Amino acid sequence: MKNIQFSHALHVLPLSMLFCATLVCGGIQPQQAWAKEVAPPPAPPAQAVPVETPAQVWQEAEDAVKGGDQEKAASAYLRYYEKFREAERAEEALWLAAQNLKQMTEKSATPQWSRVRDVFRRYGADFPKSARAAEAYFEVGYAHYRMRFYREALIYFKLFLKRYPESPLLDQVRLAQADTLFAVGRAAEALDIYKQVAESGQEEIKAKALMGLGELMSANKDPVGALQTFATLFEKYPDYHHRNPELLRKLGFVYLRVGNEEDARKSLFHYLNLAENPADRGEIFFELGESYLRGGDGLTALKLYERILDDETREDRIAVLARFRRAEYMDSPERRTIKGQQASDLKDPEGDKPFLAVIKAYPDEPITQDARRALFLRYQAREDTGSAADLGRSYLHHDKPGQAAGKKENFSGKILLYLGEGYLARKEYDKLYQLYLAEHHHVRALDNGRFLYLVGQALESLSLLDQASVVYFRAQGLALSDEDKADLYSRRTEVYLLQKNLAAANRVLCYVQNIYKDTEYLGEFDYLAGKLSELQGKKKEALAHYTKATEAAPVPAKIKVYAEARLRMLASLGQYAEGIDFLARARKRQWLGAESLQGWYREFGDGLLGQEKVKAAIAAYLSGVNGDMPKETKAAQQIHLQLGDLFRKAREMEKGRGHLQKAQAGPDELLRKKAKSTLNQIEIDLGKKPRRVAR
Prior knowledge:
Structural class: mainly alpha
Number of helices: 37
Shape: elongated
Radius of gyration: 50 Å
Distance between the termini: 171 Å
């Protein structure tokens, strides 16, 4: 039994030892029952990733080509090349990837020519001995041209001609070289190449060379030569524009350059119909809109601008310009709106945004002047004089002198006038003079004399009489309103009189008194003739001229000036009685103010008194203080003092006392003392003690 048990133990021992070793080495521990219940299920066996075959990827690319998805096709061909470089069709896959990418980029509104360049460059690097290597090298250079990296493009084209002198692509490369030279402004070199290539044996290249030649002539301001070249192209290759609609676009722009709007529109619309959704579609719509706008058909232009703005999120240059043109049209009082479209409010600052966007983004482009013009009118409408003046100066800075072709007015002249009138109204004479000096090139182009007429007034106020006379003379030779011209002659004469240039003043007056005979302006020139006679010492002639001036009909606007001159000359000649008669008329017709009348009554009273015409003098004095004449003035005080003394001498003591008391209440201290002294004399004359008179 012992042996059996021992034998059994020997059989069991190895198993026990193995179990213990497993516990020690593997860290296996007995699991509790609850642990077994929450243990995660075993992971499913890993599935094998399907492996693409060359045939599958190639088929994917071909299916994408058939479906018109060139992006997917290019991606599949590139994947084929990356994964199966040792495959027989690897080179073809890379080439087809490049071709699909190129075709897709040509149609894109946002072309990425760098991608095309990189794939063709890779092809040339990986397959330098391929029959397509030369074409790949050319495509790399042409991609640089498309990206406007003209220096790099010219390097590639030049090296191509050295590396591949026997290539059938030579004429195509030379054509691209000419296009690039044209783009960088080397027109003479480009012209030679275009002419050479136009005589090439390859018909397609000949046609393209003729098209480039025509475009170059157009850019070099030879639109007639450009049209002749395009005519030759159409004659030799009548169906070429179907293969290359670009010809119609270029022809349309040449027609625009020569002002043939109708043919330009036909050509550009034809281009849009033939080209397959061209990337420059918005630009063509804009140029067509501009053409209709120049032709006066603003509503059609507006519809074309709206086509551009169908995509409201568009923010490129053409969209900015189209929004401006739409806003400009809606501001116009002559507009015809599209149904349901509201007219704009010029006084709303929110409406300034389309104009400001153009001015900020494209400050030096010709169209921006239209934006400044329209915004200037908006500022004027809301009477924002500060902003209008600032924008006006900016317009002048960017504008060419004179009236632009197709414009109804010289807007620079309008702005000069606006600024000038503002400066003159604010008496900023020096600023007006500085504006005249700074904008002399615009001033020379003016066909209206009003701005010069304003400048002359500023120079007068600055006492620059020599300059004023010259400016007035220049203004006289330009168009002016009747009122401005008459006033200009008047001011010019006044300047000559101030300069004591009596001969020049006389020449002007002899001329104007003939042309303004029997007009409302004649009174002014009679007045000036009086001033001339007065300076010449011819007082009676001066009085005759002043009398004519005051008798002019209708009553001149400057009647007060003329009346004062007539009264002054009457006083100078001692014709006081006539002066009193004229004063009565002037008073009745309210030609002079009350204080002025009172002063003249006192002066003429003094004159009559000097002529010992006492009664007439007293009558004049009384007229100066009775009725509606001022009571508290120094002139009234003087008159009362004179009347008091005259009545005292005439022994009319009570009347005299009354006037002297009024004189004693007047504003002048010395006259008050004189009045008191005369009152005392009255008391002495009456043999009475002096009375205390209230002051």
